[in-house]
Amino acid sequence: MTDGSKINARFRSAIRIALISIFLLSISVVPTSTQAADQGALMTMHLEKREGSVTKTVAQNKVFRNGDVLRFRLTSKIAGYLYVLDHGTTGTTTALFPIASGAAANNSIAADVSTLVPATGDGWFEVSGPSGFDVIYIMVSDRPINLPPAAPQTGTQAPAGTAPLPPGLLPRCNDAIFKARGDCVDPSAGVAPLSPDSPVPRELAPLAKTAARDIILSEEGDGTAVKAGLSAKLPLIYTFRLAHLE
Q1: pTM for the whole thing?
Q2: Is residue 85 domain-shared with residue 25, that is, in the same domain?
Q3: Pairing, β 64-65 against β 236-245
């Protein structure tokens, strides 16, 4: 091999090493989606259950029974305004936060301060209704929004919005988890994004076209951290599927 050939071979080898180093460096500094969500979480959400005088945080995808007493604990990373509506398995929609309307409504939330939902007393509610999934709509905004008053409710009223899951679908236990720890858990329950083509309850309909639905989820202990997607702007809307059996 000539001296020129040796020099060219060493040059090509050096180029390959440099390219490999750049590639490995790029892998080491690219954050995962979980890291990105943790760094820019808009809100964290925990579900709590009351058992006698004891309050404990429970898994959000647990299948509950009628009579269980629960509440949500939400912590926002920004000061803003919170709206929470529950579309139950009876087909009726109930305002959980705020519970008053018009001038009497007080739904402002402070940054890094926990908010209990429903907005009644210490926030507890009792699980009830036919077996299935309550779909709870959570919307956070950086400004107050005038929502229309709730429509009169009746037990036979048609659903105000289409649930993310097919009507009548019952919660089902994950057999592996049930056998391992005796806990009935349905993986489809808990925090979930609202698909672009899913309607919302009548009270939120004026915002359906403008509210962002792009969210990124990450686990935070027994809770979920919710981050706005790269293209999302406030107001932001997402859902929580509460699974329960009679």
Answers
A1: 0.75
A2: no
A3: parallel
